Amino acid sequence: MRRFCSQVWLHAKVNQANIDWLEFIFFRVGVSMLTLIFYVLIASFTTGEVDLSRWVVGNAFVLCTYECIHLIGVSFNGERFNGRLRSIIVSPTSKLIVLMYTGSWAVFSAFLTIGAAFLVGGLIFGVSFAGFNATAFIISIVITAFACVGLGLLIGIFALITDSMYLILNAIAMLIMIFSGANFPVEQLPLPAQILAEIMPVRRGIAAANQYFNNPIDSGFWQLVGGEATIGVVFILLAFFLIKVIEGAAIKRATLEI
Known about the structure:
Elements: H1 2-15, H2 21-47, H3 53-73, H4 75-81, H5 85-90, H6 95-124, H7 134-156, H8 165-179, H9 191-197, H10 203-209, H11 219-253
């Protein structure tokens, strides 16, 4: 565990080597807050509603996709660029653990981003924090980030197959935004899209987030976060299976370009 934590911290320093903490606040958190404000303003003018809590919560959680999925999705791209991919493939260390180093930092980064965006967005748009349930807020962020990390692990493996990862990641992020229900109800989508939304992360986290205000943690809340955690576990298991298949193919063909 000590070695794992040291590797997580090392990967965090590598990922943030080009910026300091002040730049992190203005770049990561600042851009996320501006994105949230943009979508909430659109919702305000199109719906005319005064209570914008639902949009603030939903768009704050959608930001989790950009933090978790993109950070992990480009992990193998970074390893290839830095010349470490061959060593990782032939190493007996689990490749999934290598991705989890980045994944742990992604969860922490998503927690900071969502928390800051939610609090600042709430103050800007007059969200009442009178019945705010901090415990439910923290649990929902961590579980939602975990589910996004699982999807990021699964997608990140495809960096061994294609060099168009940024196109794939942006497409997946947009799909999650559509299927999350952050800006419009999922029920308005066609039936096949509603079925696809059931296996995508973030939607249940947002639904649980809407119980933060004036509601205690009940069985409905645990059912939502439990479903989100289950999706994350399924994605991780699929990623573990897929990376074994690709690793075997890479060794058999003596090439990293599967």
